[in-house]
Specification:
It is built from 27 helices and 13 strands. By secondary structure, it is an alpha+beta fold. Strand 3 and strand 4 form a beta hairpin. The chain binds zinc ion.
């Protein structure tokens, strides 16, 4: 479902600063994950030389990447455990006895996904109407109508359409259109000329060709079609803005009337698109990248209609590949999993089906998950820590020597306005209008996809629904939303290794405490700081304070740009310090705030050692151990281009190098690698 849900995923990530990128995934069954694990350490290493290795060395050595994963870390262990818990829920939901409507629905969805015999028997039949619709396109206007239909059914193509709060009036949600339509994970794959990018495009064309053949096309035709797809997607990529540039909200801030954008890009027939996509009528919208629409406008005319039809056929095939027979699923894996990510084997079907249920009916499954694992007392405990860390931030802002009192006042106002959402939403989603049967995986997924799209479209031109969550409760992640000014912690992350009921404060502050501090800091990172307390894109900084901030952020960007992310036989790739700046700022800020909150809680004393470590040392070790991980070279390369987060090693070593408290806790000396000569401190 990775590909099919791209539209929704894209929609989320525009507005959200997450704690972690999508988890990679464990063999065997669920296990108890310790919050703090002395056996994970390599005590022979020097914490002041390579702290990541000191905290994680033995874990890294003893936990190779399972064949069905491209990355394996302690973070992923938790996610994998969740899959087992969710499977139990799904299997019980189909068992004997009385079941609630939610149980029946998620149980049937999972059962239909697991019913591979029935999926094989249907073959390509479920896809046929989708391809038929494209075949029937006679004019460019028909083409746009089919794009509208595909979007309405959660299949990405050509560009993106979604709702978001108005950047200048966050209480109101409006429609957005934006660049889109490519299939590879980033525009760079299409436009870069290094040998690896050239190889990737060649493998991609071979993959597209095989998929067309599976859909019934003759080999020579399929080969030509694949070249056409690459040519069209390359043009879409060339018209697309770079991911790093797009981080700045100013580059995406273009409110226009429908008439204005229609006049600027007439060949898109936006009036036809909007009349047929099922969204409510409106007159103004935000255009994320007007140049994309202007550039692709001429191509809509110059590229033959037959080629556009080939492109749409490809988007329909790849968008539904995971819902089809084994042959499609395997070919999809060989390219996207094995070649692109270095994953050796496909995950067992049940794991993919649990994930698909979470992605399609996640709030129904989440309700059952929360009943089983979380409960109101979890909410209570987390809220207490959130308050402690918010207090630390208040204190931190007060102590800043470079910020004027005028700006500090505004910063306090923003901090005090942050809304804390813990565990699960106040109101559960009503899926009762979605038809789910136990023998129609393809249909179930399409109906759940279009339900979600409709739910999103219905937000357009209405007051912003601040209670709607972007992640499902079992998700092991957390996020901050600049337009909402809220922090959100799904129930999935509120457990070991992040939070242990029986653990000492030092360990819990080093785990979930840093996550909380990280999300809070996002409201004040290089982009988050551009939004005010209400979530409007509006500068509240005195100009000289803004300059001081930029200097400090620049220090962080340069520092992380010097870190090597991958070194393999294809060469060395360094981190993109500008792409990862927001996340690195949040890691550094989060670590500082959580440490301050811990000291405020336990009283600034050395404290009693446990397992031979002082509370301060346990705090940093707990933080370091969250990020113990192994990753394939392929996955690491992909993430350098696409992931705004640094790899585990640098999330740890990058942040501790800038921390005076770390230096003190481990008695490190100037000149040692974990004591940065020029420490970068924003917050
Ligand atoms: Zn983050």
């Amino acid at each position: 479902m990775l590909v099919r849900n791209l539209a929704v995923a894209l929609l989320m990530c525009v507005a959200v600063a997450c704690f972690a990128q999508t988890p990679g995934n464990s063999p065997g069954g669920p296990r108890q994950i310790p919050s703090f694990d002395v056996t994970a350490m390599d005590k022979a290493a020097d914490p002041c030389v390579d702290f990541y290795h000191y905290a994680c060395g033995s874990w890294i050595k003893n936990n190779p990447i399972p064949p069905d994963k491209s990355r394996w870390g302690r973070f992923d262990e938790l996610y994998e455990n969740n899959l087992y818990i969710l499977r139990d829920i799904l299997v019980q939901a189909q068992g004997p006895g009385k079941h609630s409507a939610s149980e029946k629905m998620v149980g049937d969805f999972y059962a239909a996904c697991m019913d591979e015999a029935s999926i094989e028997q249907k073959g390509t039949a479920p896809l046929a109407p989708e391809l038929e619709r494209i075949k029937d396109i006679k004019t460019k206007a028909d083409l746009i109508k089919v794009v509208a239909y595909m979007h309405e059914n959660a299949t990405p193509a050509l560009f993106a359409f979604f709702p978001q709060p108005d950047m200048h009036d966050s209480n109101q949600t409006i429609a957005y259109i934006d660049q889109g339509g490519i299939t590879l994970p980033d525009r760079d794959y299409y436009v870069k000329d290094d040998p690896k990018s050239v190889e990737t495009r060649q493998k991609y064309v071979e993959h597209v060709e095989k998929m067309f053949q599976l859909a019934g096309d003759k080999p020579d035709i399929a080969a030509m079609e694949a070249e056409t797809v690459l040519a069209i997607e390359t043009r879409l990529a060339q018209a697309s803005m770079d991911r790093t540039v797009r981080r700045d909200p100013k580059t995406r801030d273009h409110k226009m009337t429908v008439a204005e954008i229609s006049a600027a890009a007439p060949n898109f027939d936006l009036a036809v698109y909007l009349a047929s996509n099922g969204a409510p009528k409106f007159t103004t919208l935000n255009v994320g990248n007007p140049d994309f629409f202007k550039q692709v406008n001429s191509q809509l005319d110059s590229v033959p209609l037959a080629d556009w039809k080939t492109y749409l056929r490809w988007k329909a095939i790849t968008g539904h590949a995971q819902l089809l027979t084994k042959a499609f699923v395997e070919e999809d894996f060989l390219f996207n999993g094995k070649y692109m990510s270095g994953q050796q084997e496909m995950e067992p079907r049940w794991k993919r089906c649990v994930k698909a249920t979470d992605q399609n009916l996640g709030m129904a499954l989440g309700e059952l998950y929360v009943d089983k694992t979380f409960g109101p007392e979890g909410k209570e405990r987390t809220l207490k820590m959130v308050k402690a860390i918010e207090n630390a931030m208040q204190q931190d802002i007060g102590q800043l020597s470079w910020m004027s009192d005028t700006t500090k006042k505004q910063a306090y106002a923003k901090l005090n306005a942050i809304v804390n959402n813990i565990g699960y939403p106040d109101k559960w989603r009503d899926y009762s209008s979605v038809v789910i049967t136990s023998d129609d995986y393809f249909g179930n997924s399409v109906r759940a996809g279009s339900f979600e799209v409709k739910r999103q479209y219905n937000k357009i031109d209405k007051p912003t629904d601040r209670g709607d969550w972007n992640m499902t409760p079992p998700t092991v992640n957390a996020y901050y939303r600049p337009p909402m000014n809220d922090i959100n912690f799904p129930a999935g992350i509120l457990q070991p290794p992040f939070y242990g009921k029986l653990m000492d404060d030092a360990v819990n502050y080093g785990g979930i405490g840093v996550v909380i501090g990280h999300e809070l800091t996002h409201g004040f990172d290089d982009q988050g700081r551009k939004y005010d307390a209400q979530g409007n894109f509006q500068d509240w900084w005195a100009p000289e304070d803004g300059k001081e901030f930029e200097q400090r952020a620049d220090c962080t960007a340069k520092e992380y740009s010097s870190f090597v992310a991958v070194k393999d036989d294809k060469g060395e790739v360094k981190l993109n310090g500008k792409l990862t700046l927001g996340e690195n700022t949040a890691d550094n800020g989060g670590l500082k705030l959580a440490y301050m909150a811990l000291m405020n809680t336990i009283g600034h004393t050395a404290g009693k050692p446990i397992d031979g470590f002082t509370p301060a040392q346990r705090f940093f070790l707990a933080y370091g151990q969250i990020w113990c991980q192994n990753v394939t070279d392929q996955e690491a390369r992909k993430r350098v281009l696409t992931d705004p987060h640094s790899p585990g090693e640098w999330r740890v070593n990058g942040a501790v190098q800038n921390s005076a408290a770390f230096e003190q806790a481990f008695g490190c000396k100037a000149g040692q690698p974990m004591v940065s000569e020029n420490a970068c401190r924003v917050w």
